[in-house]
Amino acid sequence: MLLKDRVAVVTGPAKGMGAACTLLLAEHGADLALAGRDTAAIEPVAEQVRAMGRRAEIFACDVTDAASVEAMAAGALSAFGRCDILVNIAGGRGPLGKTFWETTPEEFDAILRLNVTGCFLTMRAFAPGMIASKYGKVVNVGGTFGLRGRAGRAAYSASKWGLRGITKSAALELGPHNINVNCCCPGMVEGPRFEAVRATMAAQQGISAEEARVQHAGEYALRRISTDQDVANAVLFLASDLSRQTTGQDLAVDGGWVI
Q: Is 220 a catalytic residue?
């Protein structure tokens, strides 16, 4: 087990890649502090973790609210004594198919606060403990629209570029304390978000949803859409000591879109 007896904090663990990452971390030996706004939605994932013989505790948290993050961190540290691994998955997609000039200031601010400030707040809350223990792994889940621009996704793209910036700065600042900070950048992932994207794409181009899928997959070298498990596998690598000499990096899990 790559993470035997490690303690991991995961934000946004209730569904999709969040659930897949949580379960893979548990499978490899980690105990889990699971944080999110909808604690009831997290409970089924927590039960699966406990069924593996690992510990899972749930903490209410709105990552966009500093006081909420501080309370969650205090609760997790009280319950587990430390945080070895922080995986920031909580995030949003922002407006779809809007030009930047059609995007409202409120929409723009909201997605930056969720996707950038949320990660800043959780990293800020757990960094002192990691520094004290001289060990830590931080994995921020970004996106390939933070590696390439994308028309119609200006707000989301800006947020993921911003997340890469804070990841790299944090890696430089925390590196002397034996703490790795990296960004996992999924491309499109099978699930509700991709369904919404291809529905929008189909409507805009006057094609079927299946044609939109084929067209989108055709942009990737491997000609296939990523899965939650693909992302979880990359997160496991970055959360484990297999990545001991990797920090400040962007790991694209996208089937070859940003080559």
A: no
